[in-house]
Amino acid sequence: MANLNKEQKKAQTKRVSKAITDSGGFFTIIAKRAKVSYMTVKKEIKNNKGLQRKLEEESEKIKDRAETYCIEAMDKGDGNMVRFFLKTKAKDRGYTERHEVDDLGRRIEIDELKKKFNSLTNDKKKT
Predict the structure, then answer these.
(1) What is the pTM of this model?
(2) What is each CA distance from 67 to 21, 54, 71, 72, 82, in whole angstroms?
(3) The predicted structure's pLDDT at residue 47
(4) CA-CA-CA-CA dihedral for 117, 119, 124, 125, to nearest 10
(5) Residue 92, pLDDT score
(6) How far apart, in whole angstroms, are the C-alpha atoms of residue 92 and residue 87?
(7) Are 58 and 24 in contact (CB under 8 A)?
(8) Residue 79: exposed, middle, or buried by beta-carbon count in 10 A (0-12, 13-18, 19+)?
(9) pLDDT digits (tens, 9 = 90+) for 10-22
C-alpha cells in the first residue's frame, strides 16, 4: 500500500466508516465496499475509537438479528432451537450440559461425578 497524504487518509477513513454500515461487522465486506485491503480495514479500526464504536454497534445489530430469528423459530415450535436457547441463555436456571473429562480422556457427566463424590464422602463418614 502506498503512503497516503492527509487528505487521502481522511477520505479512506470516511470510506471505511461508510462501509461499516450494514456490513454485519465483517471485515471482508467492509474492505470490499471501501475498496481497501482487509489489513487496511483492521488498521483503520484499530487506530480509530469512532470506527471501533461503529463496528461494535454493527456487530451487535447482527447478533440482535440472529436472536430474532431464533425467537421466531421457537415461536414456530422448533424444539432444537428451544433446547439451544435454554442451554445458552438459561444456564442460571439449570439448563446446561456440562461435561468433565477423567484422567484417561473419557467424558464424565457432572451427575456421575456428584454420585462418585457423594459415595466417597459417605464412605469416609462411615469410618
Answers:
(1) 0.65
(2) 19, 20, 6, 9, 12
(3) 95
(4) 110
(5) 78
(6) 10
(7) yes
(8) exposed
(9) 999 999 999 999 9
